[in-house]
Amino acid sequence: MSFEFYRCPKVLFGSGRILELGKTASRLGSKALVVTGANSLDRSGNWDKIAGSLASASVILKRLTVKSEPSPEIVDTAVREFQDQAIHVVIAVGGGSVIDCAKAIAAMLPLGESVNFYLEGVGHKNHPGKTLPLIAVPTTAGTGSEATKNAVLSSIGKEGFKKSLRHDNFTPLYALLDPELTLTCPPLITAACGMDAFTQLLESYLSTKGSPLTDALSLSGIKYLSPALLPAATDRGDNIFFRSSLLYGAFLSGVTLANAGLGIIHGLAGPVGARTPMPHGMVCATLVGEACRMNILRIREQRGKDDLILEKYARVGRIICGNHLANDDQACDLLLEKLKEWIRRLRIPRLGAYGIQESDLDALVARAGQKANPILLDRADVKTILKARL
């Protein structure tokens, strides 16, 4: 057995822990850049808690609001605005897009250059890893960006891209996980984020680069997240236990994806997200069922070669369906039916709702990455996955 495991942030988990933000930030400096989304913090009253906590610890704040998916232009503009203001610490309060944006800003402020020079597959420079300390405070339970070492930036359009700025040093120093901050997250966003987290847990569990450690963490996340997803995203969104379970699962999904990698679902999410403004979580949510169906179909055809992967799919099926007596084939089928039910009950839209047409599929397939998918799919298989969700 041989594997590596990247460092995690120090985790502060629990209801009301947002009030500890000021004390935590003051350990890192007296001047903070707080990166947030546009409006939800103010509407919920949580911004007053954040500002008050920082003020009580004598931390001076500058605020930057991010209104869209993080792009190189947003990061570069922020760096120009704040690089001469002696910022000591960057605090990200928001969803995965906000955290990724803050992560990139923290990494580029010490350099004062365009982030495009350092994006994977775009620039030609290797980032030296010098970054401002980052505190990540997620307000959605989805991407797990509070636990990862990369920031995903997008340029949306026909020739667009979603690329990472990556370095081991970009992992946040602290992840402050307060489920109370997620209580006002709307149902559809809760659904998309929750499905994204589930997909990351599932794909890292099935990954060809996984380890016993990532397997254990993935299963723990699935056990907590799965029973909480539907109620939190429908009629029980005010339940702090369900919100806590989603937030815990989402954090672990970030830990496991950083250490085990992901599969075809995320290999497609990048090209789809670069071509259309469909939110990343929604792309994963709409594709997860058909991608699992195709993986299971192809693995069953090779029976005897990859029975371990079918056993893993079956284990997940037993967990989320509560049927621990089903044999492996039955449990795999139960998993596929449960995913179909989630997509229907959560009203996950199809790709066509965001403008993807059949004529786009070949280009998307050509740009898809297999990453750590448990079985190599051919292009026809990948196209079938997309076509089933048009």
Structure, explained:
The protein is an alpha/beta fold. It folds into two domains: about 10-115 and about 160-180, Rossmann fold; about 185-390, Dehydroquinate synthase-like - alpha domain (Dehydroquinate synthase-like, alpha domain, Up-down Bundle). The chain has helices spanning about 20-25, 40-45, 45-55, 70-80, 95-110, 185-205, 210-235, 240-260, 265-275, 280-300, 305-320, 330-345, 360-365, 380-390; strands at about 10-15, 30-35, 60-65, 90-95, 135-140, 150-155, 160-165, 175. The strands form two sheets. A six-stranded parallel beta sheet has the order 1-8-5-4-2-3, sandwiched between helices. The N and C termini lie far apart (about 40 Å).
Summarize the structure.
The chain is of the alpha/beta class.
Rg, rounded, reads 20 Å
Low-confidence stretches: none
Mean pLDDT: 94
Tally the beta strands.
8
CATH fourth-tier homologous superfamily of the largest domain: Dehydroquinate synthase-like - alpha domain
In DSSP terms, counting alpha (H) and pi (I) runs of 4 or more, how many helices?
14
Major β-sheet profile: 6 strands, parallel
Molecular shape: globular
Instruction: Please identify the structural class as seen in this structure.
Output: alpha/beta
CATH class of the largest domain: Mainly Alpha
CATH topology of the largest domain: Dehydroquinate synthase-like, alpha domain
Number of separate domains: 2
The proportion of strand residues reads 5-15%
Order of helices and strands: EHEHHEHEHEEEEHHHHHHHHH
What is the CATH-assigned architecture of the largest domain?
Answer: Up-down Bundle
State the end-to-end CA separation: 42 Å
Helix content range of the residues, please? 40-55%
